[in-house]
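Figure S4 source data
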Amino acid sequence: MNGSSVANTSPSIKSKEDQVLNGHDEKENPFAEYMWMENEEDFNRQVEEELQEQEFLDRCFQEMLDEEDQDWFIPSRDLPQAMGQLQQQLNGLSVSDGHDSEDILSKSNLNPDAKEFIPGVKY
């Protein structure tokens, strides 16, 4: 909130009743500029209400922004730190290019000619 909104709260638009005070035109009354002080308590109450309303609107707007932030997925905030370690481990994995596959097959105990296993089917 800035001070300009408070400065603009003084009544600048005046009705005919406000312009004529005690039967005198505003131009004839040297204190016309200060007549708002006559009702200073009402003026202060009005300014306080406006300030409270602005503060309430600011709080509501901030709550709305906070709720919106919670709805968005932000990996750095929403993912646990262990996910970064998993990502590093995944990045470290590589697919072999096939040179070691012959060595693995020679040590294997599996029958390459066996039928494919299908659950529930008896052979």
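Figure S5 source data
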Amino acid sequence: MAITEVWDGVAEVHMALNNQATGLLNLKKDIRGVLDQMEDIQLEILGERAQCRSQTRKEQQMACIAKARPPLGCSEGFRGQLWLLLLRLLLGALLACTAAYVYVVDPAPFEGLVPPLLSHAAVWKLRALLGPFLRLEVDDFLPF
């Protein structure tokens, strides 16, 4: 009689475990279904966003064409390129003016900058190279 009660208890526990296993498998299937639905919803949202962005771009391009302007992005790029070109021209003019001042007027203000940057031997080589170009030779043109 005790053995029968134990066997009945084991059978009940076995059925409960089988019911739990079945419930867990069903839960797993339900979770997979929910995850698939969430993925589908995310893909739909991403698709709608992409369509919205492409539609916005098309509307902006049509607005630019209607206003007789270049397409989107070109005007900003042109302004940036123009600004960069002006800065380069300004820097080039500044360098050219400095070089002209040193070459034509007076190299003395810049002589103090060169020796700390170069060695003494390099300074003497530089003077030997540039000396004839930085001095005004007028002996041949004087009448006396």
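The chain is about 85% helix and 0% strand. The CA atoms of residues 72 and 79 lie 13 Å apart.
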